[in-house]
Design a protein that fits this description.
Layout: E1 2-7, E2 15-22, E3 29-30, H1 36-47, E4 58-61, E5 71-78, H2 85-101, E6 107-110, H3 112-115, H4 121-135, H5 148-151, E7 158-163, H6 169-193, H7 201-212, E8 218-222, H8 224-229, H9 233-239, E9 247-254, E10 263-267, E11 269-273, H10 293-307, E12 313-323, E13 335-337, E14 343-345, H11 353-366, E15 371-376, H12 381-386, E16 391-394, H13 398-411, E17 415-418, H14 422-426, E18 435-436, H15 445-454, E19 463-467, H16 492-500
Parallel strand pairs: 1-7, 2-5, 2-6, 6-7, 10-12, 10-15, 11-12, 14-18, 15-19, 16-17
Antiparallel strand pairs: 2-3, 4-5, 8-9, 9-12, 13-14, 16-19
Helix pairs in contact: 2-4, 4-6, 6-10, 9-11, 10-16, 11-15, 13-16
Amino acid sequence: MKVVLQKGPKTDLQTLVVFCAKDKKSGKPVSGKLSPEMSKLVASAHADASFNGDKKEGVFFRQCNVDGYKNILLMGLGDPAQVDGESLRVAGSLCYSALKAHKQTSAGVMAESFTKFMKDSALAVQSFSEGVELSAYEFNDLKSKPKKDDAKKPTLEQISLLFSAAPSAAQQGALKRAEILVECQNFARWLGDNPGNYMTPTIMANETVKAAKGTGLKVTVWDKARIKKENFGGLLAVAAGSSEDPRFIIMEYNGAGKSKKPVCFVGKGLTFDCGGISIKPSAQMEEMKYDMCGGAAVIGTMLALARLKAKVNVIGLVPSTENLVGPAATKPGDVYTARNGTTVEVFNTDAEGRLILGDALAYGSEQKPVAMFDAATLTGAILIALGNTHTGVFTRDGKLRKRIQEASDATGELVWAMPLVDFHVEDMKGIHADLCNISNGRLAGSSTAAAFLEQFVDKDIPWAHFDIAGTAWNVASRFPYNPKKGASGVMVRTFVELAESY
């Protein structure tokens, strides 16, 4: 699915989409400059109460032949004062879905009908295009090939944004940025949607190497022998129950001078997690193929930064393994030594993500980054706290928290600051080792997990942990540009924004 910018009109297209906001005083739909014929159509739709310009509202006029277009789709934006990047992302998604539902094969959008409601028309183009192209993602790789009749079904492969004058260089640049961000976010989704037998640690590493070719992104992959040599005790402990060897994926992008410190991203890459000996309930265990979505987000972020040629140095780290039950599996009560020399008691083998992240964070600290961020589907507790709308963010650094919030505001990926204090650290102290991998009580599970991770980060490095367990998959009920069932690719856009802020 592609979005293109063109000077209009283009009456050879099957359908024209026109956006309207809802005027607060009159309650009538308002739009950009419309022809008398189009204005009459909008007014008649309002008169019979079928269209008011409300948010997410839409009405399709088939065979109406207005302004040379066979069909017209009117769509609402709601309060014009509240139109922003996220609302246009949603609008793009709903526009695509409506056109697809009405089996349209070609369509144009009157671009000024939505860009007029934002000061930055280029940002409006980017956000709308992201919504359209993110909505077109489907994971059908493992389905049998369609029958001949199914293959002939009408498809919508392109939407044209039609401007009254030639699109500006800024608008074209915004569209290109949207395409790169979407392609990299969709790659993160694709990594997550593949089942565990198609996305082992080795395959994940190989796909990263393959995707990085020609981008300027350097990828290094450590095998089990190198991981053991580098004293990644946590990664080895989690991998012990699986016949699949672990991998440690290192991605490096240098877009700035050598003297400039890198930004470091770390992502949890559990390609499947049954919980180990502390085995999970069988219900919905199939969703644990998504336990590597933090790693996928880091991979997508690194690819995007390289393709955008961002003027920043960045390191991406993904420890990847399976967590399964086997004759050599780590047992509750076992103790291992992490990369930084910390000893850890494993009281619950299902609290494994923090074990592999600890090694990666310790390695990341050694690279002396200007800031470090990690993303992980870490705790079920974060779903109880925040549901599937917000990603939980844990940091003690107020300036970093502000930077994260600004990046979140820019991308529409909602985050919420969660508590992290010394009490949470105390709860993670071990009995016969330095730390225990679960707390001594059931409360504040997301905060105690973050406190565990904090012990592997050098104190002078600004660091934040993103718990994406609630936002990494099955979030279309909140954000319609995501698949109804499947990975969201969450945090790719926000991490790109964060990296570019340095």
